[in-house]
Design goal:
With 311 residues, the chain is mainly α. It has a domain of 170 residues: Rossmann fold, CATH 3.40.50. It is 42% helix and 6% strand. The protein is built from eleven helices and four strands; from the N terminus they run ααβαβαβαβαααααα. Helix 3 links the parallel strand 1 and strand 2. The longest helix is centred in the last third of the chain and has 25 residues. The chain is globular. The relative contact order is 0.15.
Length: 311
Amino acid sequence: MIRAAALLFLLLTVAHAPAHAQANPLRGSGKVRNYLPHMTRPEVEDLLTRSDMVIIPVASLEQHGTHLPIGTDYLNGEERAKLIAQRADVLVAPILLPGQSPYHMEFAGTITLPSTLVQEVYVEAAKSLMRHGFRRFLILNAHGGNNAISTFIVDRINQETEGIAVKLNDVVGPFMDRTASRALPGREPRFDRHGGTGETSESLYLIPELVDLARAEAPRLTLPDHLEAMLPAVVAGDPTATAVFLAEGLKDAATGKGTSAAEMSSTGVWGVVDPAEASVERGRIATEAFVNAAVAFIERWNELRPPHTGG
């Protein structure tokens, strides 16, 4: 009898416990406006009365040195898209975490997919959204290795479907504020790319809780001799040298070029600068410049082609 009474008391206690006491302790952020995974069906339907536009980040899951998370590209791209969607009526629809990253596979945690599979997933996802009434797509490339894939996704949407797509990275240029960056102290140009101070600065601003700056270290680079000789021209901004350098650099070890991340860098960071030199302020300026330009482009596109016009 005592045991039964104790059991009844326990059940009643659990039933009347505050709802927050049973919530997932990992859930700390609130609901984000226009972010598809957070939205209910009626909220999507309501957005469709005002907008037919979608931002789709195209990202990756790949190593970013010893201080940034594997999901840096995905998370930063998604956060930029969310910031844009707080100022413009546009749906943020993340589709896929991994992208094309074969040159990082010698470092643990990287996941890579064939380019044909990546673009097929995004095109099919866009078709799903078109069935609900979305027509205009802003493809936000958040990983350099997906550059060609993102272009192909845009072209396939435009050529094969009723949708209209642009590559957001390409169309924001005329709207970018180039003066904001002058607020930061100038430095001599240095080779500083994947996982370097730019990406680390943006991560410090966008996903600070996931950056372990104490573990950052300057990489030791071992470029093939002909790429090493080309590097000063690349750093100086020579467009031909840069195009040739990037065509061969950071490629799958299976190609035999000797330019995979592990073959060229001791830490996986592709640069000669210590990522610890990154700053939140630099990340804020870069992020706000991109977000402001994206919002301005969206407003201009809406002027040229208001929602729900055309075919």
